[in-house]
Amino acid sequence: MDAFTRLEATIRSRQGADPASSYVASLFARGRGTQAQKLGEEAVELVIAATSDPARIVPEAADLVFHLAVLLADAGLSLTDVAAELERREGVSGHREKAERATAVPIPTPAPLPASMPAPAPTSATLSLSGMAADPTAASGDALPLPRGGPLASDG
């Protein structure tokens, strides 16, 4: 059994578990909007690592894959479904495949997150959204708090 299969089995085993006992269970309890938000946060962290801290690329990529696996599990899908889609695209020109996707059914805009959702606890790490290409570590008025540590670090 490879690491991805074990990860997906762990995630599935925590669906329906007490959210207080498991980070994964808390992501399921908070819903797909929160899962998508976390996936986006991890994608941004990977982009920052790729442009400013190459030693963080693999850990951030692992966080991204983890949060992708949670979202897929919530949707009743798996990384195997993603692999099947990649296999379907194999040998197809990237330009042609992208053009075919442009004519497909549009993806609906996600609903806004509920106002009652608690904000993440602030941390010392921040992400600046302005001027990211020029200086991804620059502080600005629109800095967002970023969590630290792996997603399974505090999981029980």
CATH architecture descriptor text of the largest domain: Orthogonal Bundle
- The helix content is 40-55%
Shape: globular
The secondary-structure class comes to: mainly alpha
Q: Find the count of extended strands (DSSP E, 2+ residues).
A: 2
Low-confidence stretches: 122-148
Number of helices: 6
CATH superfamily of the largest domain: MazG-like
Biggest sheet descriptor:
2 strands, antiparallel
Highest-level CATH class of the largest domain? Mainly Alpha
**How widely separated are the two ends?**
21 Å
Q: What is the CATH topology descriptor of the largest domain?
A: Helix Hairpins
Strand order of the largest sheet: 1-2
The total tally of domains equals 2
Note the beta-strand portion: under 5%
**What is the H-and-E element order?**
HHHHHHEE
SSE map:
Elements: H1 3-13, H2 23-30, H3 32-52, H4 57-74, H5 79-89, H6 94-102, E1 126-127, E2 144-145
Antiparallel strand pairs: 1-2
Helix pairs in contact: 1-4, 3-4
